[in-house]
Design a protein that fits this description.
Layout lengths: L1 H28 L6 H12 L3 E9 L5 E10 L8 E12 L1 H4 L6 E15 L24 E15 L11 E13 L15 E11 L2 E13 L2 E11 L2 E10 L6 E12 H9 L8 E11 L11 E12 L7 H7 L13 E12 L2 E10 L3 E10 L6 E9 L5 H9 L3 E3 L2 E10 L4 E5 L5
Parallel strand pairs: 4-5
Antiparallel strand pairs: 1-2, 2-3, 3-4, 5-6, 6-7, 7-8, 8-9, 9-10, 10-11, 11-12, 12-13, 13-14, 14-15, 15-16, 16-17, 17-19, 18-19, 19-20
Length: 443
């Protein structure tokens, strides 16, 4: 009987303790919206930015969760007015027991309807930085968050020009879904923080960098101090696929980017329209690899500082504008074998090396294999919007010609070798309206 009384007394003490803790917890957490001004002030103190919260709520089941509605963190002066971050709803699952001693421990965080607008000023500062930060002190006491889930987000990255105007976004992502682990939200923007502040998976319905746009993007993501790295990228683009890696660093005055991409099955006509904003000058299926790096300048052409290398190959395409140029159309008539019998502007393959610098793409060797006409050339094309071209090379008729054709071709400057005619040429003008001329023979 005594044993039963001791067990009953123990259970009563435990129950009383739990009840007392629950009462104390309820006193702390009941009606959290009344503490909205204090929480808003807390955000402002720790971010150095004006913050707005539309509402707060609390649920106890299945876990103690604070719901924050309409969280908006404003860009600080001298940036244009607007939100750095706006979150439609944030659900923070709390560890209830630390609350009894005044500590906030977030076990997991779910963010819904997130809009992030990142702006860089000409002096290198970003609108997400804390202007009051000392550089070494982490003022957020909540520590590491084990799990962060982002559902439905969009991000834009742009520059503030010296004039004060905001440039068009040079990078943007939409319909983002992400699951991150071991996230230190404060340390991500703290220059003195540890090297790794979160990692996980990342998906986007649409991702654009410059004029190149991809969809259905899947990758892993790594958050570091002032740097985001996206790896193991798999994306759809222009009826083909792009794989590779991308990084954006904001540690210097101008943001720096790197990209390592492999392309397969790309519809070249669709890709060129994105660059040229007009009818495609070449069609075909594009495969290749491209490596890019450089700084994003605070100018109207922010990607002018990018440089890189690559290799591309275009298969089974056409040059629709070829026949509109008299010089090219006369040469194209020799491209009359196989599929080119019906369409002289078609080709089997184009292979080229690429070097990007100062908004020009240069090639040391462009090898065009036609159906009766082969071309070896070198030169460059502008990607600044002017679409200027400057190439020179030699076109060779791979099939033997008759006596009169050969005779008149030689009089016109062609060279006859092993019964095959070769024409030195130059190409100028623009992609849409090229000008072709006979190049002088080299000695």
């Amino acid at each position: 009987m005594a044993t039963r009384r001791r067990i009953a007394l123990t259970l009563f003490v435990i129950a009383a303790g739990v009840l007392a803790a629950a009462v104390l917890l309820a006193r702390v957490l009941i009606n959290p919206d009344r503490y909205r001004p204090e929480i808003t002030s807390y955000f402002e103190e720790n971010t150095g930015k004006t913050t707005e919260i539309e509402g707060l709520a609390l649920t106890f089941f299945p876990k103690v969760t604070v719901h924050i509605y309409g969280l908006g963190v404003k860009s600080p002066p001298p940036f244009p007015a607007g939100d750095v971050v706006h979150v439609a709803q944030a659900d923070a699952v709390l560890d209830p027991w630390p609350l009894l001693r005044g500590a906030v421990v977030i076990r997991s965080l779910t963010l819904k309807g997130v809009t992030i607008n990142l702006l860089s000023a000409p002096d290198g500062h970003w609108n997400f930085e804390n202007p009051r930060a000392s550089g070494s002190k982490n003022t957020f006491p909540m520590g590491i968050i084990n799990s962060v889930v982002i559902d439905g987000a969009q991000v834009t990255v742009a520059n503030v020009l010296p004039s004060g105007a905001v440039s068009p976004a040079f990078a943007e992502a939409h319909d983002i879904a992400s699951e991150l682990t071991v996230v230190n939200l404060a340390a991500i923007v703290n220059p003195s923080s540890s090297s790794l502040n979160g990692q996980g998976t990342w998906q986007a319905g649409r991702l654009r960098f410059g004029v190149v746009e991809t969809t259905n993007v899947h990758s892993t993501v790594r958050l570091e101090s002032q740097k985001v790295s996206i790896a193991n990228v798999k994306a759809s683009a222009y009826s083909g696929a792009i794989t590779g890696a991308f990084s954006l660093s904001v540690a210097t005055e101008n943001a720096s980017v790197t990209a390592d991409a492999r392309l397969s099955g790309i519809n070249l006509a669709s890709l060129l329209v994105a660059f040229q904003e007009q009818r495609a000058s070449v069609t075909g299926t594009l495969d290749g690899d491209v490596n890019l790096a450089g700084e994003v300048a605070h100018t109207a052409s922010p990607l002018a500082g990018l440089h890189g290398t690559g290799h591309v190959r275009i298969l089974n395409g056409e040059v629709p504008t070829m026949m509109s140029n008299p010089s090219i159309s006369r040469l194209a008539t020799f491209n009359d074998q196989g599929p080119a019998k019906e369409n002289h502007t078609s080709f089997a393959s184009i292979a080229a090396d690429l070097q990007l610098a100062d908004l020009w793409v240069s090639s040391k060797l462009v090898d065009i294999d036609g159906f009766g006409l082969d071309v070896d050339a070198s030169g460059r094309v502008s990607v600044s919007g002017s679409d200027q071209v400057s190439y020179q090379g030699v076109a060779t008729i791979t099939t033997k010609q008759g006596f009169w054709t050969t005779t008149f071709a030689r009089l016109g400057g062609a060279t006859l070798t092993d019964g095959k005619l070769s024409f030195p040429f130059r190409v100028g003008g623009t992609i849409e309206n090229p000008t072709v001329s006979r190049a002088p023979k080299t000695k």
